[in-house]
Amino acid sequence: MLRKNQPDPQLTALLTVGTVCSAIAVGVGVMMTQNNALLALVAAIATLGTVAAIASTEAAIYAVIAVACFDGIIKGFHPSMFSMLLKDIFLAIALAHWIWDGMNGSPRISLSHRVAAPAVMFILYCTAQMFNSENVSWALALAGLRSWCVWIPVFFITYDTIRTRKQFERLILFIAVISAVTGVYGIVQHRIGFQHLYKISSSFAFYTAFAHGANVRAPGTYVHPGTAGSAMSFAATVCIGVALAARAFSLRQVLLLLAAPICLAAMAATGSRAPLVGAAIGLMAFILMTRRAHLVVGLIILLLIGGWQAEKYVGRMMSARYSQSRLNMTVIWQRAIGPFTRGFEMLSLYPLGTGVASGTGAGRAVFLMDEPMHVKSETAVLIENEVGRAMKELGLPGTALFLWLLWRVFTSAFAGWAHSTGRDAWLASGLVASALNLALQLMVGSSLYLAPGGIYFWMACALASRIPDYAAQDAMALAKREPEQVQEWERLTGAQATQAP
Question: What is the pTM of this model?
Answer without folding.
Answer: 0.87
